[in-house]
Write a sequence for this structure.
RNA sequence: GUGGGUAUAGUUCAGUGGCAGAACGCCAGACUGUGGCUCUGGAUGUCGUGGGUUCGACCCCCACUACCCACCCCA
């Protein structure tokens, strides 16, 4: 098919039966989030570019190198166009909506979840696409409503553990860290820079660059030779101020109390500027290099940096593509079979078949409709190929007698059934 | 942005400087209203795109593009 139009780089079509898995994931997500009292929010895919510059951070790779952004046409000749961007993540949009609609006026904490496409202009590889899907949730609100409480952090993490268990995902690991706050992080960063000054010369070239641009990322380095050096660098944990220390300790205590296993990873850092205090990641082995299945953390200053009131919050984003991938590693997808294939037999039978299909479908029977031009042999062959459980023959004999030939395609057994008993015969249960 | 690999039928892949292949799938038939198994037949390809070498290129050379994997980064 040379010259034909194909899906653009980094995007893909999700086809049946894979979409069954996606729907399975999404309905489990909605069920689980519901009992934790999260409600769905839908924000635009298109946002003002500044939203991401001011939240995710202008120096991050996501904003500086990976954003799909362009200048919209100006409305008047004297004006400049507005810069728009496809959202690279969804937390900024949710917080923007929180501010725009003054949601702090609503009682209690705002608890939102979202499912939707995000866009980053990266080079695609396994588990990484330019259009990818995130499932996320945010808890946000005034401090007086309890938004800063460590119990919210623990609740969110416990919910995630429940979700992964519910989905049947085995072998996940929760990594936890505290990345500090506006008060103590600058002190830590300075200590880290000072320590790096002496050793960075013997580290990998990437670390030498990171030491300049984003020293925290040095902790993320995977080069074996650098590991002994990194182990000796100062740890954020030793620089947390009193309130951050107590907060982090309480989160751990609660997690232990509810029986969610976790491991402290002093080197866990997040890629977005807005994260504070609790930072976490769930990983899974079956994902290749992209082993982070979800990540998140607290963002206590984000609302203010977007011009809103103080509104501490915590949230996460699940990489839905990666989640589906791990699910397909373990369990195969089973497409749901149709209940019955209706085989009209001979001229004039389509209308009778259509009437029957209408009746059955109104009783929730899943019907595939054949065509009167097909030979019966072909109809039955098609019926079994597409996985229908029964074939219903609609020919002159049946229409005249009111007794319909119903064939069980699994057993080969064929019975004659009165029209009004067909739904029960096809779907004995329910 | 960097490195490596790949590109041939719907799919997974063989293949040779001289007629384009297999398996699976798809379509049709094996006497009239009975599928799965079997048998027979059939269709489908600008051999990724553009250039070059050659009497002749799917094959050799160059460029481009796309995809895959890894780095970077992140979900």
């Amino acid at each position: 098919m040379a010259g034909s139009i194909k899906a653009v780089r980094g995007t893909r079509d999700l086809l049946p039966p894979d979409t069954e898995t996606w729907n399975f994931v999404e309905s489990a997500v909605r069920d689980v989030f519901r009992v934790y009292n999260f409600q769905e929010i839908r924000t635009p895919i298109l946002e003002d570019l500044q939203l991401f510059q001011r939240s995710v951070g202008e120096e991050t790779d996501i904003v500086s190198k990976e954003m799909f952004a362009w200048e919209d046409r100006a409305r008047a000749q004297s004006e400049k166009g507005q810069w728009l961007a496809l959202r690279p993540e969804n937390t900024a949009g949710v917080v923007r909506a929180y501010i725009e609609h003054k949601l702090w006026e609503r009682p209690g904490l705002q608890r939102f979840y979202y499912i939707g496409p995000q866009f980053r202009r990266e080079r695609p590889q396994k588990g990484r696409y330019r259009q990818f899907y995130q499932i996320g949730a945010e808890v946000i609100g005034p401090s007086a409503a309890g938004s800063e409480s460590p119990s919210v952090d623990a609740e969110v993490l416990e919910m995630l553990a429940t979700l992964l268990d519910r989905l049947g995902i085995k072998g996940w690991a929760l990594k936890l860290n505290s990345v500090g706050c506006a008060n103590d992080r600058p002190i830590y960063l300075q200590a880290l820079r000072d320590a790096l000054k002496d050793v960075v010369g013997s580290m990998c070239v990437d670390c030498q660059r990171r030491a300049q641009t984003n020293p925290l990322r040095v902790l993320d380095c995977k080069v074996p030779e650098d590991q002994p050096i990194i182990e000796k660098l100062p740890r954020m944990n030793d620089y947390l101020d009193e309130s951050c220390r107590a907060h982090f300790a309480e989160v751990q205590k609660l997690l232990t109390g509810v029986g969610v296993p976790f491991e402290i990873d002093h080197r866990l850092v997040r890629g977005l500027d807005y994260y504070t205090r609790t930072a976490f990641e769930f990983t899974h082995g079956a994902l290749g290099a992209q082993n982070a299945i979800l990540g998140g953390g607290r963002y206590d200053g984000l609302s203010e940096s977007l011009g809103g009131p103080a509104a501490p919050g915590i949230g996460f984003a699940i990489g839905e593509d990666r989640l589906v991938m791990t699910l397909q590693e373990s369990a195969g997808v089973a497409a749901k079979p149709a209940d019955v294939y209706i085989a009209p037999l001979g001229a004039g039978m389509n209308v009778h078949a259509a009437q029957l299909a209408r009746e059955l479908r109104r009783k929730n029977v899943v019907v595939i409709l054949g065509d009167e031009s097909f030979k019966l042999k072909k109809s039955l062959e098609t019926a079994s190929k597409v996985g229908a459980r029964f074939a219903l023959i609609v020919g002159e004999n049946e229409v005249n007698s009111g007794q319909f030939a119903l064939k069980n395609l699994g057993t080969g057994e064929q019975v004659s059934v009165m029209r009004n008993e067909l739904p029960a015969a096809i779907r004995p249960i329910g």
About this structure: The two ends of chain A are 47 Å apart (CA to CA). The longest helix of chain A spans residues 18-35.
